[in-house]
Design goal:
Layout lengths: L13 E4 L2 E4 H6 L3 E6 L6 H12 L1 H6 L2 E7 L3 H14 L9 E3 L5 H4 L18 E6 L5 E7 L7 H16 L2 E2 L10 E3 L5 H7 L5 E2 L10 E3 L3
Parallel strand pairs: 3-4, 4-5
Antiparallel strand pairs: 1-2, 1-5, 3-6, 6-7, 8-9, 9-11, 10-11
Helix pairs in contact: 2-4
């Protein structure tokens, strides 16, 4: 098994953060989605830009009912000092979300946020650049993993959140390169009769060599 992944239930851990102690299930329960993201280390360049970007996008996340929780193995005092750098880099945009500490490096293992090592994992565990999107049911809906050299794209995170939200309300999926306002596809488990009843705005079927009516595009609000 690859560890905690899509469909798994988030462990109900209690973590120490810059906003005090937080129980993960309680924290996730009153949000549409919760983004839990790890960074390799405080006072590092890519991580500084990433956590700054999270702060810049905080209003957009809040509009979607999304909460944020950062993570690394540095302690809370280190986080508090580092936040000053993050805010200075982002022209004093405040970091209002909590950043959790894990000096024992045990929590990142339980959250499947450990950077693979080339020496058989004999070195101390290091946080990967991982991001889990957790639903109010405490289950992992999306899991991203980037190498330390590549910063995350916040626009892509927003796009995925919008896709998850739309799919939770309608029997649809979002096709490749979808963005809000584009057509979506009707789920393959929706019959033609059900599609006509459920998607009264209509839909367009793509004619395919297989003659199978499964690629059906529509618009939903």
């Amino acid at each position: 098994m690859p560890g905690l992944t899509i469909g798994d239930t988030l462990p109900d851990l209690e973590v120490q953060t810059t906003h005090g102690n937080i129980k993960l299930h309680e924290y996730c329960s009153n949000a549409n989605f919760t983004i839990i993201f790890s960074h390799p280390g405080d006072f590092t360049p890519v991580c500084t830009t990433e956590l700054g970007a999270m702060a810049v996008y905080a209003d957009k996340f809040e509009q979607r009912g999304v909460k944020l929780l950062g993570f690394s193995c540095d302690d809370v005092q280190s986080h508090q000092e580092w936040i000053k750098d993050i805010e200075a880099y982002n022209k004093n945009k405040p970091v209002n979300y909590p950043i959790a500490a894990d000096p024992s490096r045990e929590i990142i293992k339980k959250l499947n946020m450990v950077e693979p090592t080339a020496d058989g994992n004999t070195a101390p565990a290091t946080p990967s650049r991982a991001l889990h999107i957790v639903g109010p049911d405490k289950k992992i809906k999306v899991s991203f993993l980037y190498p330390a050299s590549t910063g995350r794209n916040m626009d892509e995170v927003l796009r995925v959140l919008d896709s998850l939200d739309m799919a939770s309300k309608h029997k649809i999926a979002t096709p490749a390169n979808w963005k809000p306002g584009d057509s979506v596809v009707i789920s393959p488990d929706v019959s033609s009769d059900e599609a006509k009843q459920s998607f009264t705005q209509g839909y367009d079927s793509v004619e395919l060599p297989s003659n199978k009516d499964y690629l059906r595009f529509t618009h939903v609000a």
